[in-house]
Amino acid sequence: MAYNEHPFLTDIKVTDPTPMPDNVPKVDEVGATSAPLKSASFFIGGFCKDYNEDFMLCKNENNDPAHCLKEGRKVTRCAIDLLKKLRENCDKQFEAHWQCLDKNNHEFYMCRPEEKIFNGCVLNALNLKKVIPGSPEGQTPINLKENPIYRPRPRT
């Protein structure tokens, strides 16, 4: 897929067409803005867990950024793969959630209704469950609470 054909990009031009050196593994850019990435972030974390952990272990071995390019490319490929699957299976729900985040300063609590619908679609279509790292054991995660402390304002 060419850079400017990615489903999230519109009217963006590549400013530096200089190719990467041959020793740098080839990979497409993710091509998503911050709102779709934040919307998918917990699913990316779970879906790409092994690649993410390899990348972080590599970074701990060496401070040279070039040392972990291979592992970083695997993380990027995995994220692209998941974003494609989200678009193929839950496009409407995904877009509703990330657009809500985009309009509400990226605050999850403002978009719980859209998040619940999106999470349900991802669970049914891809069998991926949203897991929030560090959530207390035995307690209902904030995204599953019926009456969270922070409730979204009614939309007008």
From TrEMBL:
It comes from Paraglomus brasilianum. Its main location: mitochondrion. Belongs to the complex I NDUFA8 subunit family. It is found in: Mitochondrion inner membrane. Residues 137-156 are annotated as: Disordered. One of its GO terms (biological process) is mitochondrial electron transport, NADH to ubiquinone. Accessory subunit of the mitochondrial membrane respiratory chain NADH dehydrogenase (Complex I), that is believed not to be involved in catalysis. Complex I functions in the transfer of electrons from NADH to the respiratory chain. The immediate electron acceptor for the enzyme is believed to be ubiquinone. GO terms for cellular component: mitochondrial inner membrane. PROSITE patterns: CHCH. It comes from the Eukaryota. This is NADH-ubiquinone oxidoreductase. Keywords: Disulfide bond, Electron transport, Membrane, Mitochondrion, Mitochondrion inner membrane, Repeat, Respiratory chain, Transport.
